[in-house]
Amino acid sequence: MSYLDEEIIEDFKKINKKIIILSDSKHDSIAKKINDNIPFSVINIAWNLLKDAIYLGASTSQMSMDALSEKIKLITEGDVIILGDSTDNAYLIDIKDLSPALKIFSTIPQHTYIVQERLDWIACISFEGDIYFSTL
After folding, report:
1. 82-135: per-residue pLDDT in tens?
2. Which DSSP string do the residues of 20-85 spell out, in sequence order?
C-alpha cells in the first residue's frame, strides 16, 4: 500500500465514511477493462475520441466537482469504483458518499478514474486538475 493509499484511508476515517479496498484481482480486472475499451493518448484518456465526452472544468472549482457528482449520480445505481495511476488500491464507494470521495481523490496527484464495473461511463480527475466525463 502506498503512502497515498494510506492518506486516502485516513481521510475517509476522518469524515466517518466507509471505503472498501478491492482485491488485487478485481483491481486488475477493472484496469484491464478500462485499458481494453477506452482510447488513450500517452497517459491520458483520448477524450476527443469519445463521442459523448464532456469537459466539466477544473477540480479546483466546487461547481465543476458538483457537476461531476450530479452527472454520475443521475446515471448510476449502486456503488462506484475509484482507481488511479499513482495509488496501489482500487476502492468501492457508496454512491451517497460520492461528493466527499471526489473531494478527497481530487487532492491526490494522479489521474483518478471513476467507473462502475459494467463500464458504461467513465469519469476522470486528471493529474493536471481537469475533470472529464463520458458515457460509453
Report:
1. 999 999 999 999 999 999 999 999 999 999 999 999 999 999 999 999 999 999
2. EEPPHHHHHHHHHHHHHHS-EETTEE-GGGSTT-EEEEETT-HHHHHHHHHHHHHH--S-EEEEES
